[in-house]
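Write out the bound-state structure for 4'-phosphopantetheine.
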Amino acid sequence: MAKVHRMVGQGLAAIATEGEAPYAADVVNKIKAIYPGTFDPLTNGHLDLIARGAKIVDHLVVGVLSNAQKHPLFTVPERVEMIEQATQGIGNVSVATFDGLLVDFAQRELAQAVLRGIRAISDYEYEVQMAMMNRRLAPGLETIFMMPHEKYSYVSSRLVKEVFRLGGAVDGLVPDLVLERLKARVASEKH
Ligand code: PNS
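---
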């Protein structure tokens, strides 16, 4: 068995990249990952991805970007509260806010990975650009891509807000607690 490990190790030396974490077959890591986003608001697609991510990492931090948009529908504390409520049944998920570079936040959190969702091929190009830029900035930080359930493949926070504001139904696309907040917020906007 030890011999096999040595052979694997020698082979891996050839693909080692400076600055990146070395692969070690016999080291068991505790993996902490960041799932970053604006989450304005949290959708069932986000929630689906959080649940999938939490199954494969030891701890998942949902990172809410706090300086993203000039006119968000929900404040950052409101978004954090909604995500906390929606994920309270998942023991290894926590919620935090960040501004500035994602890689700096990941470093402060001592996270080894960033989790991102790919709903369709149209997400791929932007996501790869971000992953490669983040790798350039922080070579040891890995990006993990996962796919939400296909029933959420067209769901985005932007479309949910637009459809809801124009009177369309978004039931089933966001958690019920988000739907209630949407109703209250849009009703107050009209007054
Ligand atoms: O919900 P979104 O808009 O898909 O999330 C985008 C997010 C927050 C992941 C991205 O904008 C981000 O990481 N912003 C932080 C600033 C940063 O690090 N920018 C360089 C990314 S390569």
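---
The beta strands are 32-37, 59-65, 93-98, 113-117, 142-146.
The longest strand covers residues 59-65.
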